[in-house]
Amino acid sequence: MPPLGESGSLQAIVKDYIESNNVMVFSKSTCPFCKKVKNLFDSFQIKYLAVELDQMENGADIQATLKEMTGQRTVPNVFINKTHIGGCDDTLQLHKDGKLHEAVAANAEKPEETYDYDLIVIGGGSGGLAASKAAAAFNKKVAVFDFVKPTPSGTTWGLGGTCVNVGCIPKKLMHQAALLGEAVNDSMKYGWAVEETYKHNWNILRDAVQDHIGSLNFAYRVQLREKKITYVNAYAKFVGPHTIEAVNKKGKVTTHTSAQFLLAPGLRPNYLNCPGAKEYCITSDDLFALQHCPGKTLLVGASYISLECAGFLKAFGLDVTVMVRSILLRGFDRQMADLIGSYMESHGIRFIQESQVKKVEQLESGEPGRLLVTYGNNAGEESSEEFNTVVLAIGRQAMTDDLNLGAVGVKTNSKNGKIICDEKEGSSVPYIHAVGDVVDGKPELTPVAIQAGILLARRLFSDGSILCDYENVPTTVFTPLEYGCIGLSEEKATELYGIDDLEVYHTNYVPLEFAVAQRRANECYVKLICIKSLNEKVVGFHYAGPNAGEVTQGYAVAMRLGATKHDFDNTIGIHPTCSEVFTTLQTTKSSGMNVAAAGC
Ligand code: FAD
Ligand code: NA7
What we know:
Elements: H1 9-20, E1 23-27, H2 32-43, E2 49-52, H3 59-70, E3 77-80, E4 83-86, H4 88-96, H5 100-105, E5 117-122, H6 126-136, E6 142-145, H7 161-166, H8 168-189, H9 202-226, E7 230-232, E8 234-240, E9 243-248, E10 253-263, E11 267-269, H10 277-280, E12 282-283, H11 284-287, E13 297-300, H12 304-315, E14 320-323, H13 334-346, E15 350-352, E16 355-364, E17 370-377, E18 382-387, E19 389-392, E20 396-398, E21 432-434, H14 446-461, E22 475-477, E23 483-487, H15 490-497, E24 502-508, H16 512-517, E25 525-531, E26 537-544, H17 548-560, H18 565-569
Parallel strand pairs: 1-2, 5-6, 5-10, 6-7, 10-21, 12-19, 13-14, 13-19, 14-15
Antiparallel strand pairs: 1-3, 3-4, 8-9, 9-10, 11-20, 16-17, 17-18, 22-23, 23-26, 24-25, 25-26
Helix pairs in contact: 6-14, 8-9, 8-12
Residues 122-128, 145-148, 161-163, 166-168, 171, 235-236, 264-266, 284, 305, 399, 402-403, 436-438, 444-447, 449 line the site of flavin-adenine dinucleotide (FAD).
């Protein structure tokens, strides 16, 4: 074999692959000879890394580099213990000669490759931080790279990722501000004399929320320092199999190596592809730190981020409109989604149905300015309306484009850029793992990212064997009428079990606190979806009402344990609460009986 050249970044990458993997196969996913070689290694449980050149952006260049280095252009191109073996025939011959195992084992006695770190984590959000702290607890040398690229409007934030800075935390605090406003109103019915007309001050709330976030950013930095985790505020990408390059705010570039990698770069909001979207619209990444009260606001998109933001902005006394392309809360139970929408509408939030924004123009800059939004509906009619603020909540994209994953062979879903992982959070490359929102097909929730990160660190660095269980993950939508759910929607349950095998127990109810305050409670409703053939095992839990997160969390334990309707019936309720309604459910949907709320 000709000597491996030292020059050229591709040669360095190829060399890094060969040196970092005892058995290295440069392969193509459709090549039958490559399959033969991989099957051979699989049959002896020999660990190898196969990079599929046909699935990599620079695959053709790597193939040309291999030709330059080894004289062999074809695949598979196999290396064992840093020695070039050749193609399929050469590898099979090695096996026939009885030398395969010897060649693979030869490396066992050699000292392990030394790296700067045991674990490099890319992304200092919920999943990345949880995993890094768990790994450090096993005395591993860990570094976290976290960097926030500013939004088009220039908003940026500190350590902690989406949840802490622009997600769950500011959202829930603003929702709490909304609930308090409603409580002031209710309080008059409870005898409190609220002397003056009260109104909301956006700047006070924003500062309070941002101060709290600042304290969390600081606490995270302290925690990392205390646990001796290196924190690097820089944007990272792969430049070789075990090597990343990181660029900080000042443009300084550093290079770092690690034995293992964890990718937890999360997601960032999408922008509409129409004139004015990036120039004049904001997203949830900007809203919680907005320097002025947003005024009359249009929220584009109908998923939970849009509806939650619409809910608290309306409660602050603003004129709020939601533009819906198709349906509310796609993926959630349809009946529950409609209840949420109907409650919001009855509380003065306007919905523009089946419409999409065509362009956004600035009429006047200012705080807030004036924007003209032109939109069209499904019937082809066009309309225009003026708003002060337009918030886009039309989905979020995986932050994988800049990681140069092609250079290391990490496979992503071409539709959404998310990382394809096995049940152990392992990517297609054995020493590269992923957790959190960036993992394809998993719930995008903070506790999921945290749980997956902690369990992964325990498996990688200790004797942990527990896998993250992505089933029956409870969640809550913090809309004006809160909605908590666990397990299947009625639609999904019907699809999986068939309509005849479902028994749905349901009821409307009036929360006691609503009754005295004379609040509308038409939409307060619960249902349990049960499977007849499984002894009425509960597979779907749905709750619309106050304190949905608190109510739902505990029932998630019951669902994990496989609770049946009988178990719910045999549980004694706590009176007077909303949650107790789950212990007294009697009416089935199939009976057609009226479940309108009768009060306590
Ligand atoms: P993130 O927390 O997004 O962290 C990723 C970090 O990596 C970021 O700081 C990013 O800037 C950084 N990064 C990316 N690329 C690089 C790179 N190349 N180099 C260095 N750093 C990089 N979940 C809930 O459970 N409950 C809720 O109520 C809830 N509400 C939400 C409300 C909103 C408005 C939003 C947007 C999300 C909400 N979520 C909620 C979802 C929750 O925030 C996410 O599931 C969670 O933050 C995902 O964590 P993560 O570790 O995957 O990524
Ligand atoms: P989601 O859950 O992906 O929902 C996106 C919403 O935006 C949904 O209602 C879409 O309507 C709508 N959408 C998507 N593209 C467009 C365009 N081009 N025009 C109008 N409306 C559009 O996104 P979120 O931002 O709410 O939250 C994403 C995740 O981030 C969430 O799971 C959290 O974990 C964090 P559709 O139903 O497709 O017609």
